[in-house]
Every structure is written in C-alpha cells, then in structure tokens.
Description:
Number of strands: 11
Helix content: under 10%
Order of helices and strands: EEEEEEHEEEEE
Radius of gyration: 19 Å
Largest sheet: 9 strands, antiparallel
Oligomer: single chain
Structural class: mainly beta
Distance between the termini: 29 Å
Amino acid sequence: MTQKTGIATRDELLSYMNTGGESPKYDLIGEGFSELTENLNPKTKDSQYIHQKSGTSSIIGYAPTFDFTAELDKGDPVAVFIAEIGRDRKVGEACETDIVNVYTWMDAKTAGKQVAYQQKVAVKVDNSGSGAGGEAMALTGSLMYKGDAVKGEWDPKTKSFTADSEITPAS
Length: 171
C-alpha cells in the first residue's frame, strides 16, 4: 500500500510501456532498469525591450525525454522490445509506442484507480546491448515524448488506461 503523505520515492512512480502495438499490452518498466529520468527540457523565449533595464523570460513549450539505463534482461518484455528497436535500426512509426506514468499515491476519480498520464513516445536506442567482458549487457537511450500527455486513470488490476475524457461521471 502506497503512503498518501510524506516524500514520494521513485518506486511510487510506475511507468508502463505498450509492447503490444495496436492491441495494447502494458508491461512495467522496471526489471533491469536502474534509471528512468524525466527531463522536461523547457523551451524559453527571452526578451528585452529598449525601455527595459532587465529582460524577461517566458516558458513557451516543452520537449520532454525520459532517459533510461538498464541491463539487457532477456526475459523482460520491455528490455526485449527496446533492444529490438535498436538492433533492427527501426525508424519512424516502427520505433514509436506509448507509455503510461502512474502516480500510485494519487487516487483517481474512480475508486481503486490511480492518476496516470499516457504519452506517445519515440524510442531512441543509444546502446541496444553491449558492454565489457563478464558484465551485464547495457541498454541505454531515451523515450522522446511526442505531443501532449493525456491525463486519465490507471487500473492496476487490469493494467489499463482510461483517458479522463472517456470517464462517465457517476450520477
């Protein structure tokens, strides 16, 4: 059971990757993964007009990525899915999927479900499995966000995501 107060820890933010394509099959990004770090990469606009002594800055957008470091676990569907993209040097839609980030400490509107964000991503693989002798094979790269995330609910029992726009309010 996740605590609803206190400092959130990384194991309370769960990320799932669709490894099933058109028929979504969400697998936990976890086994073998030692790092999964979101970088929001905010885009800014800096302005300074002739009557101003100091300029101003505004956030005008984001170009987020989720950088990962993992060991190539031959039995983990996410690691296998990512490694195959790199080995086969897939491009375009062939290296795209979606992920769902689940905030396990945040209850959704529907009982038993959690707040989640679904995000389309392009999987950029920097290392699809290599390393030094006697060591685990490395798997590194980034999940590059495509467009805006969709807020919704995650059902931990069925491993399914429902967008807020698809949820019928209780009457």
